[in-house]
Design brief:
Shape: globular
Strand content: under 5%
Structural class: mainly alpha
Radius of gyration: 19 Å
Number of strands: 0
Number of helices: 14
Number of domains: 1
Distance between the termini: 18 Å
Helix content: over 70%
Length: 299
């Protein structure tokens, strides 16, 4: 049973990581409801699953990563390499500044909370993600519509393709990515939305969001081991073999899905998905709170 739960978690990570849906939340719900683990253990497993997708992202965006590395030769220059490096560094620093306290707060609250509180909190946060996704979709639709009605759209696309935003946008995007440490909040939705508002095309916004994910996946996966002992405790509770199974499955499906999802993600109605999951999750949390069902936690 534990291996099946781990394999399902890896599958969800490999697919949902590249959609504007919170993969860590879906994995957390699997471990809480299916595996009946404690909310804090389930949340940490949702973070550790990111290691599986990291290697797929590193390979897929190896050219972008190498470009950022080359930017080290002149980090304050005006080249695309230097601009990409600065965007990555500034956004990642802001993510750490906001995301680490958010992670510590989640661990503290969920460690002391019952399963019903976890489910209600996740449901409410998913509804917030629904609102963000809906606004992202509206903005993307307007951008796409303008491009289609522009007689010189192809030439414009050639000019704007590969655009890297500046310092202010990097701060905003990094801060939003840090907020996504909260369960229920989609990282891609929180990063794509401000870039669209700042004038990037949906294609460039998605690619930059996924490019940021290379570092984010490594950082998120490592945080439970670097901050406190939650990572080791979660691995001990679940077992080393199920964790390895989860990571292997996540890596395989990430390799299979990332290219396809990158091509269609801008057209997905993620708001409908998060609304459905959020409503169901909130409903189950309220049912648990009434005592009609036992909360999905150990002991």
């Amino acid at each position: 049973m534990h291996l099946l739960i781990a394999a399902l978690a890896g599958l969800l990570q490999g697919i949902a990581e590249w959609l504007p849906v919170s993969s860590k939340t879906m994995i957390s719900l699997v471990f809480v409801s299916g595996g009946r683990y404690s909310p804090d253990t389930a949340y940490v497993m949702g973070l550790l699953a990111n290691f599986g997708s990291f290697f797929a992202a590193l390979w897929y965006f190896r050219a972008d990563v190498w470009s950022a590395v080359k930017g080290l030769r002149d980090p304050f220059g005006s080249s695309v390499d230097a601009t990409r490096l600065r965007f990555l560094v500034v956004a990642t620093a802001m993510t750490a500044l906001i995301g680490l306290p958010a992670y510590a707060g989640v661990i503290s609250v969920f460690h002391a909370s019952a399963g019903n509180i976890f489910m209600i909190a996740v449901g409410l946060l998913l509804l917030v993600s629904t609102a963000v996704n809906y606004q992202r979709e509206r903005t993307a639709a307007k951008s796409t519509g303008k491009a289609m009605t522009n007689a010189t759209s192809e030439a414009t696309e050639d000019v704007t393709s590969g655009r890297v935003p500046g310092f202010v946008t990097a701060i905003i995007v990094g801060g939003c990515q840090g907020i996504a440490a909260l369960p229920g909040i989609s990282r891609s939705a929180m990063t794509v939305t401000p870039m669209l508002f700042r004038g990037l095309s949906p294609r460039d916004a998605l690619r930059l969001s996924f490019f940021l994910d290379v570092v984010a996946l490594l950082g998120v996966g490592a945080t439970p081991f670097l901050v406190g002992h939650a990572g080791l405790a979660a691995v001990k509770a679940v077992g080393a073999i199920p964790v390895v199974v989860m990571l292997v499955v996540a890596a395989i499906f990430s390799f299979l899905m990332i290219g396809t999802v990158l091509g269609i993600a801008a057209r997905l109605r993620a708001s409908v998905v998060t609304l459905l999951i959020g409503t169901v999750t909130l409903g189950f949390g309220l049912v648990y709170a009434t005592g009609l069902l036992s909360a999905p936690v150990h002991g």
